Structures are given as C-alpha cells and as structure tokens.
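Why do we bother with holo predictions? Because pocket geometry can differ from the apo form. Keep that in mind while you read this record for iron/sulfur cluster.
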Amino acid sequence: MDRLTPRQRQVLAWLGLPRWVPRQAPTGAEPEPAAPAPAEVAPLPVADAAPAGGASLAEVVAAAEEVPALDWPGLHAAIAACERCGLCRDRQRAVPGEGNRQAELLVVGEAPGAADEQAGRPFAGPSGRLLERMLAAIELSREQVWLTNAVKCRPPEQRRPAAEEVAACRPWLQRELALVAPRAVLVLGGVAAQSLLARDEPVSELRGRQRLPGDGAPPVVVSWHPAYLLRRPADKRGAWADLKQVMELLRDERRP
Ligand code: SF4
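The structure, written out:
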C-alpha cells in the first residue's frame, strides 16, 4: 500500500529522489518505549574555549559550568544576553532553537542567516524551506522536531563561524541536547559536526551514522546543510540516503 501523502510525493519529485515506501507497521501494540536518558553535558574544553572577543577565557569557562543548571527560560535568557564570543558585537539578536521540546529528532545547522536573524528563528530562509521538505519526506514537520544551530548569532558577511565561536557557543547546544533528550540527532554541515563531534573532516567523509561520546548520548546522522544542497542539488540523492538513516535510527531507538 502506498502510504505517501500527495505532499510527500510532491516533495520526493521535487527533490528528484526515489520514492520511499514506509514499512508496514508491526502488528500488535508496540510497548511504550522507555524515556531516553538525557545526553551528557560535557564540560567545555579549556583549549577550545578561547573567545574571539567579548568574554575572557575565565568567564567562558565559568559560564560553561553554569550551563547544565539552566531550564528553558533560563537558557533562552542566557542566549539572548550572551557575550561569550565576538559575534555578539554585530548581531541584531541571538537566534535560539525552536520546536518541540520533547522532540525525538534534534536538527543542528550552522548559524543563523539574515532571514533567520530578522525572523528570530532558525531555518527561516530558503534553506529552511528545503529542510522542511526534507523533513516532510520522512513524515516529520518542523513543529515536531527541535531545530537549532551550532552558533546562535549571525556571522557577518555570511562567513563560516570560526572555531573559537563554535566552541564558545557549544555549551548552549549541549544544554539544548540535554533538555530535549532526543532519540537521534541530524547534524547538518561541517560546523555542526565540528561542534557536536569535534571533527573537522569534510561532511562527505563524516556522512552517515555516528554516536556522540558519552553514555546515554543519542546517535547522530551527519549530512549536508540545506544551503549546500541548494548550491549542489546533485547531492540531494545522498542527502536522501542520510534521511533514510535518520528514519531507521528513530525506528531502532523506539525499540525496547
Ligand atoms: S554566537 Fe553563541 S557564544 Fe557567541 S555571542 Fe552568540 S550566543 Fe554567545
């Protein structure tokens, strides 16, 4: 039976991807899955914590130690007021994550763009619209997942965030991970991989299933950022393969 909605068929056709036919649902009631353990919040490595500007190294490390105690309002207030790196100087506003706070899937991108900063929400521009289509292809909406970026403030002139900016912002991402406690994480692009996996190889070498370090940490899938896919549509087929891995991971992680 073809369970794809008209929208999903449209999405797959638009992406130029093969049709995904979902597996049949298992017969019988599935047992209620156990609540996932919160991801560990590792301390910010001092060597990575040198700020590009703004706070001193001591302040960065001290602030990193405070992060695990924050609840959602505290986290959002801290991000809005954050001056842990030099990106605070030119921003109009910091852009925190948004979505379902009990999401099964957490999606991490790179940094807010101009449209995101203006809207005050991540993935608000063209790459966000492509991401929404990608999620729809695996039967997820942006309201069902948690969307965030490795860096919460827009780098000027669309430049890639510097390593020290990624490191300074990492505790906020770690706290989001701990609060959402997702079953799986989709890591989009090299900056997100650098933040979460401490890896700086090209995405083409990191793609696929990985696991974050630490007991109880969720598995991750690394793929290309939608902004890259808008420039290189030929890689959408590979991105589709990655999305199918996300789908499999979510299914596997639901099993008792
Ligand atoms: S990018 Fe992150 S660490 Fe830097 S000022 Fe913004 S919120 Fe703070």
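Residues 82 and 88 are 7 Å apart (CA to CA).
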